[in-house]
Design goal:
Elements: E1 2-6, E2 13-16, E3 23-26, E4 30-31, E5 35-36, E6 40-42, E7 51-55, H1 58-64, E8 65-67, E9 85-91, E10 95-109, E11 112-130, E12 133-139, E13 146-153, E14 158-164, H2 167-179, E15 183-188, E16 193-198, H3 204-212, E17 217-222, E18 226-231
Parallel strand pairs: 11-13
Antiparallel strand pairs: 1-11, 1-13, 2-3, 4-10, 5-12, 6-8, 7-9, 9-12, 10-11, 13-18, 14-16, 14-17, 15-16
Length: about 230
């Protein structure tokens, strides 16, 4: 299965040890609370293509989504108080593959929001298409412009080239990688860099933050990275 990561960030804070002093690696800004919207569906009339939406009125919401109540105890659509709340949503293109979009986190920084999602897409073709989506229901006191960063990725391991400022930093970072259980595949001693295959991090950007925070590391590059940033 291949995996598409929408704003690839899984955890707000990661604790690091073994590469310099213990410290945290944190996403920018502050955490913003939200409720996950459930038991809705994307209406057939919604234009195809991936859509990143900030919805501030019930009328606009109803033009995009319908209710999909079930008989289960948690089967009712998540309530939205439009006087106090609004919605941030991601709708993917119609695809004949099983997909699941998961809300990850919402952060506030410098007067903007960043919404984090993860999208997993299967390889097995189905006889029908679907429009997967995810939505965050947010308090209007956090009604700010929203950034969406879309990152396309393969399955693990994630492969990085890590550049260090000197030989001592290189040795320290290589030791750090091995202690995490990641595979150091090559050391470029003449340029104080090494190649590493990372299985220890849930998402690629987590790996970038983990290795980028290591003492003496000056750059971390990832093979096959493709990033698009969109704003609402």
């Amino acid at each position: 299965m291949k995996t598409m990561r929408i704003i690839a960030a899984a955890a707000a804070v990661l604790m690091l040890t073994g590469c310099g002093a213990s410290r945290s690696v944190q996403l920018p800004g502050k955490s913003v609370p939200f409720a996950e919207g459930k038991n809705y569906f994307v209406r057939n009339g919604v234009a195809d293509g991936q859509r990143l939406l900030k919805i501030v009125s019930e009328k606009d919401f109803d033009s995009l989504f319908g209710m999909a109540a079930t008989m289960s105890p948690d089967g009712q659509p998540t309530a939205i108080d439009w006087e106090k709340q609004y919605v941030i949503a991601v709708i993917d293109s119609a695809m004949p593959y099983a997909e699941n979009i998961v809300t990850e986190a919402l952060r506030s920084d410098a007067g903007r929001l960043a919404a984090y999602f993860t999208l997993d897409r299967g390889n097995e073709k189905q006889s029908y298409t679907m429009r997967p989506f995810a939505m965050m229901i947010v308090d209007r006191k956090y009604n700010l412009p929203v950034d969406y960063k879309i990152e396309l990725q393969e399955e693990k391991p994630y492969r990085f080239i890590v550049y260090c400022k000197d030989k001592k930093s290189l040795d320290n970072a290589v030791k750090f990688a091995k202690n995490r259980g990641d595979e150091v595949t090559y050391e470029y001693n003449t340029i104080n860099a090494f190649a590493v295959s990372v299985n220890s991090c849930r998402l690629p950007s987590e790996g970038e933050r983990v290795y980028g925070s290591c003492k003496g590391v000056v750059n971390v590059y990832r093979d096959g990275k493709s990033t698009v940033q969109m704003k609402k």
